[in-house]
Amino acid sequence: MINDTDLLAYASDSDFDDDTHGSSDNTGSEKELEFEEYDVGGSFDLNAGGAENAFGIITTGFDPLEVTESGSRIAGYITTDHRSQVRLGTYVIVPYEDEHLFARIWKLQYQQQFEVDDATEIHSRRMLRSNTTAELDYKFLAYLDPICILYEHVPGDGSSLMRRMADRIPRPNTPILPVTEKLKIQTGLNIPREGIFLGHLSVGGELVRTHASPPTVPYYLRNDYSMGDPLIFRHILVCGSTGTGKTFLTKNILRQFMSEDNRYQVRDNGDGVKKNKNPCLVIMDPQDEYSQLLEDNSELISSDEHNMNSESVRFGGVPSTKTFVARVDGQTYNGRSRAEQAEFTIPFEMVRSNSWLIAAAGLTELQGIALELLLEDYFKRPGTHTYNGFIEHIDDAGVRGTYVDNGKIHEASYDGIVRKVRNQAFRRVFDQPATPITEMLADIFKAGQICVFPTEYISNTRIRDLITLTLMTVVVDNKLNTSGDALVKETPMILVLDEAHRYLSKGAGEHSKRIISKFADAARQGRKEGLGLFLITQDPQDIDETVFKQVNSRVILNLSNDAAISAMKVKKEYEKRIPYLKKGQMIIQSPDNSDVVEVIGLSKCVVKHV
């Protein structure tokens, strides 16, 4: 019988220590298997120190090599010393004479080295008693998915590295090399070299490491005008199940937008000239967590700060954080915010152009039309317009008779409207003793300010939803309408909506229909108006399709719901990973920024997080 040592003798003139290669024969001297010398031509450096660090070689020993317009078939043999280092998704380089094939491993396979039937009862019992299988008894094959060709735009200038589609086939026996240069990875995956930091590139939950310092590869979201508008204005979605770290990650991302040198172009309505301004961050906070953006994280140590500075990661609290609290009768905000606080109320006057704000659930189509008529006539009356005044108005028997007797509104519809609009929740939120929000626009929408609107202190769900929808309406209407407030229109805005599925769901109801319509308009026009949507949800499948399809960048944490995973529409190889993502791991799908990649977020929050 031919043993491993006999086989290896054909590959080298030296003897080998059989224990090194897993043989049961303990004779031989300790020497290592070396690759046959390979000339790659030109002055190309074999990366990572040469062939001794290669995973293996491109092979045609069992399958032809081919690259076509519709796909490719490229396989490599992985040597025994490197088999434990190779994972699905590992990025590799295959050199040509003057270029490089950048690829990822999409399939791993064992094949028998010799003709033997190991699917027998005798063999299985023998292996169960004493498994003496040598690694060299099997071929370990890695199949490569070509991503691109890397080449130098200016020969000899390593900083001019560029990418094009994979249009060349590698030669047999070419080394398959690990990628240890940060620039090659960033160029190969089309990742910007600067922008909004989201995390570090990883494969299978392990950080991709290079020879740079720090060794990690940062993942940035494009945030300049070199290839169009910054991607925040084409909107971001962060989704993940409860407990996967959505708030932690979101704080880290949002903090990156709030640096003094981060400015966006907006049109000045006065002279039409574009100006550069810091963004205003408007956060709908249902769990009272985002006001902590004001404070530093005391757990950060000097080494953390050094690494963050080296990768342009912003950290530390934002002093311009302010909390805006809705005045609700019978409720008091005693939250964790240490930021400056200001109270506001929702004036009933807003209902003049937003009748749906008091369109309670269950109104029929005819009742909705009738309510519009009642409100229109009420706001034509002189004097102050309040919720209590409107209720008194429609309760008046004379007013009822005017509409019912003249056939304008059927009596059943009229009485139904009165019952549904006379709601204690509305009475507690409209026209409270505080400054109307419509008079606070200059205080809220300031460039460079974080505006947090907490709602956790409000026990009534309908009131919480009404406040959130009102604030969303204030932002969207003033941004998109030609008659909107000039200050709002001229300030770059990032509107952060936590629990987005509650307000943008596909469900029926006047509230849902109206707000979805507004957000769909905002999503379509946000790019030119300087309005970015930042949506956070655990149920992405419930977000209306008209809004969802406008979101360009999707950050996907662990999801266990099949419907939620399917809704994200990522490539199959990444879709299968989603249920196994650990806390802080994410899949990023942003077609205008990079290829689909796996990323690990920072292990520490850049601001306070408890």
Folded structure, characterized:
Residues 13-32 are annotated as: Disordered. Residues 232-557 form the AAA+ ATPase domain. Among the domains are: 48-189, no CATH class; 237-295 and 312-346 and 429-551, Rossmann fold (3-Layer(aba) Sandwich); 362-422. Strands 9, 10, 11, 12, 15, 16, 17, 18, 19, 20, 21, 22, 23 and 24 form a 14-stranded mixed sheet that branches. A six-stranded antiparallel β-barrel has the order 1-3-6-5-4-8. β4 (91-95) and β5 (100-112) form a beta hairpin. It is elongated and about 100 Å long. It contains 17 helices and 24 strands. The model is unreliable at 1-32 and 40-49 (pLDDT under 50). The longest helix is centred in the C-terminal third of the chain and has 20 residues, at 461-480. By secondary structure, the chain is an alpha/beta fold. Helix content is 26%, strand content 21%.
- Roughly how much helix do the residues carry, as a percent range? 25-40%
CATH topology assignment of the domain at 237-295 and 312-346 and 429-551: Rossmann fold
**At CATH's second level, what is the architecture of the domain at 237-295 and 312-346 and 429-551?**
3-Layer(aba) Sandwich
Largest sheet entry = 14 strands, mixed
Average residue pLDDT = 86
Percent of residues in beta strands? 15-25%
* Uncertain stretches: 1-32, 40-49
Report the span from N to C terminus.
Answer: 66 Å
List key phrases describing it:
14-stranded mixed β-sheet, AAA+_ATPase, disordered N terminus, about 600 residues, Rossmann fold, about 25% helix
